[in-house]
Design brief:
Elements: H1 7-12, H2 14-29, E1 31-32, H3 42-48, E2 59-60, E3 63-64, H4 72-87, E4 91-93, H5 99-110, E5 116-120, H6 136-139, E6 142-146, H7 157-167, E7 171-174, H8 185-195, E8 198-202, H9 207-211, E9 224-228, E10 239-243, H10 248-259, H11 265-278, H12 281-303, E11 307-308, E12 317-321, H13 329-338, E13 341-342, E14 344-346, E15 360-364, H14 366-370, H15 378-390, H16 395-410
Parallel strand pairs: 1-13, 5-6, 5-7, 7-8, 8-9
Antiparallel strand pairs: 2-3, 4-10, 9-10, 11-12, 12-15, 14-15
Helix pairs in contact: 3-11, 4-11, 5-10, 7-8, 12-15
Site (Plays an important role in substrate specificity): 230
Domain Serine hydroxymethyltransferase-like: 10-385
Protein name: Serine hydroxymethyltransferase
Length: 421
């Protein structure tokens, strides 16, 4: 049953309610290792489903284009002040609808069409919106891309510096979607200063770890910080832009009216709740446990002969190259899903295979840490992964493991939902 319950939805639309119940059961029964997913608290769920979804609030606090903002303005102020305090920044904008528009706002604030932007190449672990060719950011601007070393799987900052000084980008992104190692924000900041560029740190994957003190912060180094509010931060599907006071006006104008209309007030409220939760001492313990679980899982996978990009992890994310296992990422991911382990196939650096059928798997430990798993559980998780990868076409084995995982996860409560008694 849901917390909060859904009696009106069940009565008004049983078909949709059944689909939601099915998804809740799936989330409860599986080991969820998708690095960008998590479980939010019942309080975040309640805020997301509140009557704030009824209100339109184009503009900013005290400067709206609609009346009736007596309670919406304080909600947004609360979220902004909590973000500033939690991340130690001078300015925060909590209105972006998601991470990609947040990144686009940085382009709109600082660049003109055709200007040069520098970011990590998508196949190396970067994000589409850091200047990749299929994204608007790679079509409207001139992209320069850096990667990782083939021998270490890590960024060579000397090469990044040489490239930045040669190409002179106006905007440099650090961060990405499949980077298992600590990002050196001071080094990127120094490179940006030398090149005369604005530095944007995309911390979408790392925000919860940074908030909990389990990863260094870009605050004080990056001019702009963009992030989603879910993933490791364990909030709703939204985003934020943070910055120094110097860039506040340009970024706010880029978000509204530059890219979007009225903010989603119910999401803003849920962000405020998540930020309050992230400021509590228990969240710091949670963030450090995420990293401890990822390191333990990486070690257990290495012991079973898996090849990990960069040899391990410093954060929540592990990137596996399956080349030595004789199976591609896509069939392995599908088999693992059938066996009760949810993750995603992923390109690895220098991957000879196509992006839609790559060599790798990406996994993360944020969601399973929310469910209460610890380092002691990681060898068992690795053993299940190993069994499936070695016999990914054995439907009997997949069914057996799925049953084992249902029983295993059944003893670990899921925030916001529980099986009917």
């Amino acid at each position: 049953m849901h917390q909060p319950a859904l009696p009106h939805l069940h009565a008004a639309d049983p078909a949709l309610a059944a689909l939601i119940e099915g998804e809740a059961t799936r989330q409860h029964d599986k080991i969820r290792l998708i690095a960008s997913e998590n479980y939010v608290s019942p309080a975040v769920l309640e805020a997301t489903g509140s009557v704030l979804t009824n209100k339109y609030s184009e503009g900013y606090v005290g400067r709206r284009y609609y009346e009736g903002q007596q309670f919406v303005d304080p909600v947004e102020e609360l979220a902004v002040e909590r973000a500033k305090a939690l991340f130690g920044v001078e300015h925060a904008n909590v209105q972006p609808y998601s991470g990609s528009p947040a990144n686009l706002a940085a382009y709109l604030a600082f660049l003109e069409p055709g200007d040069t932007v520098m970011g990590m190449a998508l196949p190396m672990g970067g994000h589409l919106t850091h200047g990749w060719s299929v994204s608007a950011t790679g079509r409207w601007f001139t992209p320069v891309r850096y990667g990782v070393r083939a021998d270490t799987g890590r960024v060579d900052l000397d090469e990044v510096r040489d490239l930045a000084l040669k190409e002179r980008p106006k905007l440099i992104f650090c961060g990405g979607t499949a980077i298992p190692r600590t990002i050196d924000y001071p080094a990127f900041a120094e490179i940006a200063r030398e090149a005369g560029a604005v530095l944007a740190a995309d911390i979408a994957h790392l925000a919860g770890l940074i908030a909990g003190g389990a990863h260094p912060s870009p605050a004080g180094h990056a001019d702009v910080i963009t992030t989603t509010t879910h993933k490791t931060l364990r909030g709703p599907r939204g985003a934020m832009i943070m910055s120094t006071a110097e860039h506040a006006a340009a970024l706010d104008k880029a978000v509204f009216p530059g890219l979007q209309g009225g903010p989603h007030n119910h999401t803003t409220a849920a962000i405020a709740v998540a930020l309050k939760e992230a400021a509590a001492p228990a969240f710091s313990a949670y963030a450090h446990q995420i990293v401890a679980n990822a390191k333990a899982l990486a070690q257990a996978l290495l012991e079973r002969g898996f090849d990990l990009v960069s040899g391990g992890t410093d954060n929540h994310l592990v990137l596996i190259d399956l080349t030595n296992k004789g199976v591609a990422g896509k069939p392995a991911a599908r088999a693992l899903d059938e066996a009760g382990i949810e993750l995603n196939h992923n390109t690895v650096p220098f991957d000879p295979r196509k992006p839609f059928d790559p060599s790798g798997l990406r996994l993360g430990t944020a969601a399973i840490t929310t469910r209460g798993l610890t380092e002691a559980d990681m060898p068992r998780v690795a053993a299940w992964i190993d069994e499936v990868v070695r016999a990914h076409e054995d439907t009997g084995l997949l069914s057996r493991i799925a049953a084992e995982i249902r029983e295993f996860m059944g003893a670990r409560p899921m925030p916001g939902w529980a099986p009917a008694p």
